[in-house]
Amino acid sequence: MQISRESQTPRVGPRIPHCLVIGQLCYFRDHGQRVNIMIRIEALQLQRLAAETLRHLSVVDTVQVTEVRELTDGMWMVGFEDRAPYTRFPGFEIGIQQDWSPEHAAQELRFELRNKLWICPLCQRRAQMRRIVDLEMFRIECEHCGRFEMDAERLEHLRRSLE
Ligand SMILES: [Zn+2]
User: Which of 2, 79, 109, 156 is at a distance of 20 to 30 A from 60, taking alpha carbons?
Assistant: First the structure.
């Protein structure tokens, strides 16, 4: 009687590459040969941090994180999608250095998101902004605060310093 090889050896499922997939992105091009656990954790942390920042800025109804990808020089690029009808940038990325602390990364995300999404420096809601020609000034039109002007330096300072 012949026993087939198949019945002797336990069934093993297909080998799954050791990749971390967020959306459709694979971070490890070498499929598990030299998986860098630190990088893997950081990418996931950064994605969570970006999602938290969107909640913090109350823009989750229109903005979402699409991906976290790594540049060859060791920088993370966090991708965002903005579905607001009045958006300036339907899709954009924010660069985060891999050696930054989570606090530093969160600070940069807040600053860049306030800039890209035109978040009002007074009430933190989304607004419309326009640079005034030949002046380092912005005209801000906010549904809540009305129409006002602010110089670029003060606006940048508020974007950076507000929690
Ligand atoms: Zn406002």
Answer: 156
How many whole angstroms from 150 Cα to the centroid of ligand 1? 12
Residue 156 confidence (pLDDT) above 60: yes
How many residues make up the chain in this entry? 163
Alpha carbon of 81 to ligand 1 centroid (Å): 23
Q: pLDDT of 104-136, one tens digit each?
A: 899 999 999 999 999 999 999 999 999 998 999
Residue 10 lies in a domain: no
Mean pLDDT for all residues in the chain? 81
Domain that holds residue 153: 121-163
The pair of three-digit structure tokens given for residue 78, joined into one six-digit string: 């966090």
- List strand residue ranges (DSSP E) for 20-98, in order: 21-22, 25-26, 63-70, 75-82, 91-97
pLDDT in tens, 80-96: 999 999 899 999 999 99
134 C-alpha vs ligand 1 centroid, how far in Å? Answer: 24
Same domain for 37 and 52, yes or no, is yes
Same domain membership, residue 140 and residue 80: no
Taking the centre of ligand 1 as the mean of its atom positions, its distance from the CA of residue 127, in whole angstroms, is: 7
